[in-house]
């Protein structure tokens, strides 16, 4: 498998290099006389591989047995026998000749493999020759020779025939002939050739729409419509007659029954195909009525799509492109597809390229080759040796998802006529447009922002948390005994406890003693694991008690307490020395969930926000206070309940969306692209999960977006062309956001380093403009630059000291007001806290470990999501909350970021430079961090990831306007994937088997 993958990679690189550089620049010359030598070499390579590789065991054993049966018993009894025969008659004619060859002499296993595979291998060579013949009519002989060689040595073609031993090349040959004939207007012969193809393999029926479209167009464009109709009917009847003639030796009835049985066989959603059904984990899954309806419903949609390709795409090659679309779309979307059913699309796209010479046709050919070879090679080399590999490999999910994206690409490339011819020089410059006004928001932008924000708000606020939690409580002081008595003696089933402010742990144990009616001690429980503002359910296992005494090791504030008998009926105390503990029993839940309790780091941050409000000792001091202050604002408004301590972060998460939209509009100046980018960010998994938990990462991410938004406003301005005060305003706002972000979390300093780089890059650009103006005083465009450069530079530098040093320091110090109010030691408290934080992060946590920690390079590929919460509803229903990225955002972001860095470093594109600095400023510092870190530390990078994706889309859209439709489909796919993963992001109860089967793409993903 590794060898095939490497060969495919080298083949792809060779195709791109030779066709884009070697031929265009005449670095290599090929002669048509060399083609037979190359064809002979290709055949020899196939023979060697056929001899070495035994082929697919099932297919090879069938072909061998059928060849012997046909030679021995003839055609008439073939389908009447009890043997397994699931192939139509066409290939049986060839197998009878194979049986004859086998009868001539004794042979080894390797020789038999070569004999059986030879027909398909010869068809490969014939197809290569045919490609040359068609290509030389539209391109030069040199280029036609290269294209032919590319097919002869195509790894997907070689593996299909010479390694696997399949016969797809055999039925493909008459199909291509039919398309060439119909492209030349020879309707009757085209229909006959198509019938022959169907007789070889029923999969050829997939291409029927091409011939229907052609027949309809032939009639519509004919000068004599009556004559045209007669010609089409003659073609249909001739095809029918040819089919009957080929079927007759086998018996018409037996053959028809064979076709019916073949179409009904393999009643599975998919058989090892990397398609939509493979992505959903339905390989070898029996079809039911629902999946059948969905699978067959795709067929008319595919036919409609084929109509668009035929009538809207490139005219010269539409027969081949439409057929290629039908082959690949059917493979990707419909049911009962095997891994090889997209094979035909490879040759069809290469023939399309031979006819139209379009870059898009050749690129599609390469992508289809990669898709098919990886599917077939994986099944042959991996799955056949270990069938369970299909169900446990992330490779399947990734490959299937990439194939979905490839289908989207194919749809829009084949319906576009705006692609450039491959051998013409690329466009290297574009006219500069006046788009200053395009970055401003119009009413459509405001409507888009409103709709996206409202939709996301509804999703984010749904089931955010309970709006009520115990508020009154009782302070159980150290050594105090809390007495509780019931009317009678009960068999205790469960105790439910809601600690406030101070957790019950190994340093603050809570001792619960149980006594019977005579005050005899029956049991003692010591509680050591009750978190603050979270319900703790302690099983009592039938302890018999009438009286209960609770003692605390330290002062402990308890919000609510309840006891249940073994039937889980709540028991009402007859006497208690603390009535406040039993006055909110309607809030006692059946079980602890994220809806009624703190989870993960909420036990630190929500608790500290509560302490700020009530002037208590500060528990969480390892980060600056501002993030906890924001959390406390929600608590002040809605109370100390899950909704109250989460609402502030969720609102900040919602407010990110207008900022991202405005940022995207300022960068790309396109409303539709801003919609796509904002939608992708809104429904990124990390954005959703991380803004619904009461931790501080949401706030730093928000202010990173804001500070870079304002810095880009400055970056895109010039103090030569704008009023100086106007350029200083975004610097001021950027500095304020930098101060607010750093007051939430020290990682704001990382973002500040990026701001510094961008600012001085901008000033360097101003300096170069000044030098140019000084050297070219007669250039009218430079008038005034030399006069204002010095003054404006000094003012800007001094202003930035205030905006990015003085103001942030003031904001940072002011954020400590609640902290100092709790600790009560003034300025020295602030200074001491900085020292304590530095020691904690640089030394204390170095030895710490965590089961869900991950390295910075693992964040990008999402190797290890962080598992926040898990709960059990029933045996078949569980809850879970995990934080990681949407694969369509984070994984697609990898090539997008690489491309942006390339454009920044090599092409010096200003937008790419800005995005590169912004992204790397958030990521690179983590490379040097040795302490335990988590995937949520990548959250501030995500806004730049989606903007990089938007940048790449904007570049593609300059070449093909139809890209925006693909972009909308991409955004829709992001939303669909979000909906698929929603249960494990939100804590929605779900069947764990469904999660393991469809959502757990990596073994390292613990989601529930």
Keywords:
alpha+beta, eight-stranded antiparallel beta sheet, 1008 residues, 9% strand
In short:
Helix content is 61%, strand content 9%.
Shape: globular
Work out the radius of gyration. Answer: 35 Å
How many distinct beta strands? 12
- Judged by helices, strands and strand pairing, the structural class is alpha+beta
Helix content: 55-70%
What portion of residues belong to β-strands? 5-15%
Number of helices in the DSSP assignment: 36
List low-confidence stretches: 21-29, 418-437
Mean pLDDT value: 87
Largest sheet descriptor = 8 strands, antiparallel
What is the CA–CA distance across the termini? 33 Å
Description of the molecule:
By secondary structure, the protein is of the alpha+beta class. Among the domains are: 266-428, no CATH class; 474-587, Sandwich (Jelly Rolls), CATH 2.60.120. Helix content is 61%, strand content 9%. It is built from 36 helices and twelve strands. The strands form three sheets. Strands 3, 4, 5, 6, 7, 8, 9 and 10 form an eight-stranded antiparallel β-sheet that branches. Strands 1-2 form a two-stranded parallel ribbon. It is globular.
Give the topology.
Blueprint lengths: L1 H21 L12 H18 L4 H17 L16 H15 L4 H30 L2 H12 L2 H10 L3 H16 L3 H14 L7 H14 L3 H23 L4 H13 L5 E2 L4 H4 L9 H24 L5 H16 L3 E2 L4 H14 L2 H25 L10 H21 L28 H19 L12 E3 L4 E20 L9 E6 L5 E7 L8 E17 L3 E10 L4 E2 L3 E2 L25 H13 L11 H13 L3 H27 L2 H12 L2 H6 L6 H19 L8 H21 L3 H28 L9 H30 L2 H7 L3 H16 L13 H6 L4 E9 L2 E7 L3 H19 L4 H18 L14 H18 L3 H24 L5 H8 L9
Parallel strand pairs: 1-2
Antiparallel strand pairs: 3-8, 4-7, 4-8, 4-10, 5-6, 5-7, 8-9, 11-12
Helix pairs in contact: 1-17, 2-5, 2-6, 2-7, 3-4, 4-5, 5-6, 5-7, 5-8, 5-16, 7-17, 8-9, 8-16, 9-11, 10-11, 14-15, 15-16, 15-18, 16-17, 17-18, 18-35, 19-22, 19-23, 20-21, 20-29, 21-22, 22-23, 22-25, 22-34, 23-34, 23-35, 25-26, 25-27, 26-27, 26-28, 27-28, 27-33, 32-33, 32-34, 33-34
